[in-house]
Amino acid sequence: SAPAVSNFIRSIIDEDLASGKHQGIVTRFPPEPNGYLHVGHAKSICLNFGLADDYQGKCNLRMDDTNPEKESDEYVQAIQEGVEWLGFKWDGQVRFASDYFDALFGYAVELIEAGKAFVDDLSAEEMRAYRGGLTEPGRESPYRSRTVEENLDLFMRMRDGEFADGSKTLRLKIDMASPNINLRDPVIYRIRRAHHHRTGDKWCIYPMYDYTHCISDAIEGITHSLCTLEFEDHRPLYDWVLDNISIGCHPRQYEFSRLELMYALTSKRKLNQLVIDGVVSGWDDPRMPTIAGMRRRGMSPAGIRLFAQRIGVSRSENVVDMSVLEGAVRDALEGEAPRVMAVVNPLKVTLSNYDDALTASRSAPFHPQHPEFGERDVPLSREIWIERDDFAEVPPPKWQRLTAGGEVRLRYSYVIRCDEVVKDEAGEVVELKCSIDHDTLGKNPEGRKVKGVIHWVGAAHAVEAEVRWYDRLFTEARPDAVRGEDGEYVDFRTFLSDHSLKTITAFVEPVVRDAAPETRYQFERVGYFVTDRHEHVAGGRPVFNRTVGLKDSWAK
Ligand code: ATP
Ligand code: MG
Ligand code: MG
């Protein structure tokens, strides 16, 4: 793979290794299993696992599963599959924050015993009122002065299920006057009778994210805890917790900017809405910017990794055009995908002097630069299909494709001349009658230049394939950032495109019929396509998804 590009996180790691602060690095990727991973997560995966690979360290995959109502095993499975498919490995087992529930409980007891945590009876609404605002300090809860004994007793009884959901919380005693609202006695446990996908009904109290995350990092011996910039204000809390419990490890948190991709959404909650609404066929619909969707669309792991490398890692805003993703995907597929011919908008051509006895078929390489991809026959027949766009009755200037009376080369085959244009009653061209110059197979015609080369498929051998032609899902570049006249965000679903999926029938070379699901091809001169992961069956009627065109069609 390409050499790593440096960034501020690599500089920090280089210093930490040079100074002897660390002997090696340990990172983690900590998704919450409340949805499928998206392209933003891909950035974080490539960063965390990529660093571990490059520095011979390790990266843990940890499910941050502290919100039982929204989490499930389906999501856990999908996350693992996504990381593996991108080409990364975690050592041994997948970790779960829920593995640490006992330890987290123990540290909470420690904090209570040290007088640094208390059980609060304020309701959520009251707590909000006490919290204060950006310019106004908060007020201390009237329950803050409970004794250690009382707090210990109440916390045990919270765990034992004596109190109703939401009636009590455990809070840290930090500073209600702190300018950082995260430090205003944050809640670290709440009561919630919810079935957990791993711990079942063992717990009715669950730890909060900020409290769980830093301790999980410390338990795993993480050296560099990398997260997105919205957690910058949480860093003082991350450090406060680790400074106030008896744990022998204090990972450092560093923040980088979140990826946002234009014409896409990078929020599991919003993507889930599209799934729930049935706007897409599921989390892995090829229009979804999920890892599963990009996979089904035909993007390759190398293409997505190349994209992550190109967008880089920094602390400045990271809103990226879709053309950057597509460019990286295209550049990777260029050398990965075998090439075949397919006609997506067919026009019939009859070769009037076609002769079975002549060389009717020629072997063609699957990739001009990769002989190891092998070759296949491209059989000619009396009738062939060409692309409607490759014929013009009234050609524009510099036209090099076919026109009435003109000549063109059929890729890997003969030069043909258009002798007659057949039209229907409406004046629409329905067929071309052409003749072969038999003396042009693998050599130039005598005495004249034929510049144009077009792709084609022999009608007698062509396979009819279903092609799903995908386009952008939204008509707005930032569908979730548009504000209405009232200043409120407009529902992003308002901007769903009507043209994001068109299904067409194409004629493709017969060789694709036997392709396994998820085989990627370049259809020469058309674009990149993949056999559908679920609906294509080798030997049946092929089903292709259009991955991306050959040129950037997004740039304005
Ligand atoms: P979402 O809002 O989609 O649920 P999240 O940040 O809550 O996203 P997590 O499952 O908590 O999702 O994320 C796991 C990791 O991936 C975190 O370290 C998070 O910072 C990172 N991550 C999530 N979204 C992005 C993004 N758009 N760009 C870069 N990193 C991201
Ligand atoms: Mg999260
Ligand atoms: Mg989230």
UniProtKB/TrEMBL annotation:
Q: What is catalyzed by this enzyme?
A: tRNA(Gln) + L-glutamine + ATP = L-glutaminyl-tRNA(Gln) + AMP + diphosphate
What UniProt keywords apply to this chain's record, in alphabetical order?
Aminoacyl-tRNA synthetase, ATP-binding, Cytoplasm, Ligase, Nucleotide-binding, Protein biosynthesis
The opening ranks of the lineage are: Bacteria, Pseudomonadati, Pseudomonadota, Betaproteobacteria, Neisseriales
Keyword Aminoacyl-tRNA synthetase tagged:
yes
Family per similarity comment: Belongs to the class-I aminoacyl-tRNA synthetase family.
Q: What sort of enzyme, by top EC class, is this?
A: ligase
UniProt-listed Pfam families: tRNA-synt_1c (PF00749), tRNA-synt_1c_C (PF03950), tRNA-synt_1c_C2 (PF20974)
Renumbered to this chain, motif 'KMSKS' region spans 265-269
Where is this protein chiefly located? cytoplasm
PANTHER family in alphabetical order: GLUTAMATE--TRNA LIGASE, GLUTAMINE-TRNA LIGASE
UniProt lists the gene as: glnS
Biological process terms from the Gene Ontology for this record are: glutaminyl-tRNA aminoacylation; glutamyl-tRNA aminoacylation
Organism annotation: Crenobacter intestini
Name it: Glutamine--tRNA ligase
Cell location: Cytoplasm
Could you give the subunit structure recorded for this chain? Monomer.
A cellular component term from Gene Ontology for this protein is: cytosol
Please give the Gene Ontology molecular function terms for this protein: ATP binding; glutamine-tRNA ligase activity
EC number annotated for this UniProt entry: 6.1.1.18
